[in-house]
Design brief:
two-stranded antiparallel ribbon; 3 domains; mainly alpha; two-stranded parallel sheet; 23 helices
Length: 563
């Protein structure tokens, strides 16, 4: 009896240790994510440097590392860190799912809140292994099949990439709106005596605001629907995403087949109370008398911490009498899913092939690889969009075709690419945006120099819509675009033109033009254009450095100095 009580208390302490681990890793994830939430709209001359390893969780993700190796035949930067998780899983099972994964922690917390709403036989039935849990292995095979064809689609459903994208593009902007509204209300509210308490509360709310200015992201509705659906599913089935859909969980489940740590059952001590199954997060059948599915266990320890009779326990090299290390999915299903992934890539590229000139509005961040290599590396994590200080990068919908959904593109009307900023290239975990320096970007001369060392990294070229440009269409003076142009010398120049207004008076106006040999496509002119709605000047991808075939000039000489 004393040994049973000691074991019971021991596993309860371990369960608390697991909860602490989950909390700490979730807080670390949020902290690193906030390091990429930068606002430079008010002070663009003081862009901070990112010293924290903001893409640590993506670099620890084995699925990101493996699929990147498959598509690119190389291991980018710090993706070798995924070996830590791989080796740990080979020996101890899916510890990452139960102890580390921030997406798993959120699902776990929501499921725990739901547990009190669903009791008895219904809850017990939903906590047993079910055939739908095979779906995640089919998703994994599909994603690996598409990776073999050079298309990296794993970021759409990988839990770390999905959570990073959802938090950066949906949750943080929503939090920004709420805090701004609360702060604005507190400044103008006439609450009488409550003002004494309202003022410090408003200060606290203002101090925790993530950005000084509001940010918006285009095309995020589907991201919101997917993320909300995953969270809501926990109200009906415990950790439904982790059990049935997560491709990373499927990969770790396959790796855990060799685990030396497993669940040992003692049927003689079991009283049939079913407390272990009621508390199980993985639906792996921990109860004695049933077959335990090792590949489904999250190592949450809820089962052993709930068993008052010590009828089950985790051991090294346990008895496998009531356990299975096999994954319950047929070879035919795996081959069919992988084949579907292989076939999906040419089907998607039939509509928009990455080697052909893309949508003119598809302007990629500076340092982006050629489109074919870009879609073979980008995991749509949203880090580059979150770190952009001017809110210039946004997720695509179909501008890059279905294959490139949610990958980053520049929308200059919302924000422009800061000439001295290279933060997006620093946070990209897979090298879709090659890491560059301000000197390599070469949009503005270095301090003490009048010219850059070499040709700039162009991302596009600006064009005028003369039907909307004030000096052309309405005979009104406007030089805003030239004032905002950051290049040296300026890519926008003027010609003097004599025009006659409707009163018959002759006026001399400055009509702007773009020198395509100097324009880098930053979009500052489009952002600043005073014409409401569609701007009078817009940017397309033509002239981008990354694609030699997408040129407007046959030869681009060195920038000319103005006399």
């Amino acid at each position: 009896m004393n040994d049973t009580l000691k074991a019971f208390k021991h596993y309860r302490r371990l369960r608390w240790l697991r909860r602490i681990s989950q909390t700490l890793f979730l807080l670390l994830f949020l902290f690193l994510l906030l390091q990429t939430n930068i606002d430079a709209l008010d002070n663009p001359d003081a862009l901070p440097e990112i010293a924290a390893p903001v893409d640590l969780f993506l670099e620890l993700d084995p699925l990101v590392a493996i699929t990147t190796v498959i598509t690119t035949h190389s291991l980018y930067r710090n993706l070798f860190l995924a070996l830590i998780v791989i080796v740990g899983t080979l020996f101890f099972g899916r510890f990452f799912c139960g102890w580390v994964c921030p997406m798993g922690t959120i699902n776990h917390a929501i499921s725990a809140m739901r547990s009190g709403m669903m009791k008895g036989k219904r809850r017990l039935e939903r906590n047993r292994w079910m055939p739908y849990q095979r779906i995640k292995y089919g998703i994994l095979a599909f994603m690996l099949g598409s990776a073999l064809f050079g298309s990296l689609q794993i970021g759409l459903l990988d839990p770390i990439a999905l959570l990073t994208r959802s938090m950066a593009l949906v949750v943080l902007p929503a939090w920004n709106v709420v805090t701004h509204d609360i702060y604005a209300w507190s400044l103008h509210a006439d609450a009488g005596a409550i003002d004494f308490f309202l003022t410090p509360v408003a200060w606290i709310v203002h101090s925790v605001m993530i950005r000084g200015g509001s940010v918006v992201f285009d095309q995020t509705f589907l991201i919101l629907i997917l993320f909300a659906g995953i969270l809501l599913a926990n109200r009906f089935i415990t950790r439904f995403w982790c059990r049935g859909l997560c491709p990373l969980g499927a990969l770790l489940g396959l790796l855990s087949k060799t685990s030396i740590l497993g669940l040992e059952k003692r049927p003689s001590l079991c009283t049939g109370c079913s407390k272990c199954e009621l508390a199980c997060q993985g639906a792996d059948n921990p109860m004695p008398g049933e077959t335990w599915h090792q590949s489904e266990c999250h190592l949450c320890l809820n089962c052993v911490a709930s068993c008052p009779e010590a009828g089950i326990s985790f051991k090294l090299y346990p008895s496998r009498a009531e356990s299975t290390q096999e994954v319950s999915i047929s070879r035919r299903a795996v081959l069919a899913s992988a084949g579907a992934g292989l076939a999906a890539v040419p089907a998607l590229r039939a509509a928009m092939h990455p080697d052909r000139p893309s949508d003119p509005a598809l302007v990629r961040p500076p340092g982006s690889l050629p489109e074919r290599e870009f879609v073979s590396r980008c995991i749509r994590c949203g880090e580059c969009m979150n770190v952009c200080p001017n809110n210039a990068l946004h997720p695509t919908l179909l501008q890059a075709g279905a294959e490139g959904i949610w990958s980053p593109m520049l929308i200059p009307r919302i924000g422009y690419c800061e000439p001295t900023c290279v933060l997006c290239s620093q946070v990209c975990p897979t090298g879709a945006i090659d890491e560059i320096t301000e000197r390599e970007k070469a949009w503005v001369p270095e301090a003490g120099k009048e010219e850059t060392d070499g040709p700039p990294l162009r991302i596009g070229t600006a064009f005028y819509d003369t039907g909307r440009c004030l000096p052309y269409a309405m005979a009104k003076e406007c030089i805003v675009c030239e004032e905002w142009c950051p290049t040296t010398p300026k890519a926008i120049y003027f010609e003097e033109a004599e025009v006659q207004n409707r009163e018959g008076e002759y006026l001399w106006l400055k009509r702007p033009h773009v020198d395509p040999a100097l324009c880098v496509g930053c979009g500052a002119c489009t952002y600043a254009c005073p014409v409401k709605g569609a701007p009078a000047i817009y940017v397309t991808a033509v002239g981008e450095t990354r694609n030699p075939r997408n040129r407007i000039l046959l030869e681009q000489n060195r920038p000319r100095r103005e006399s």
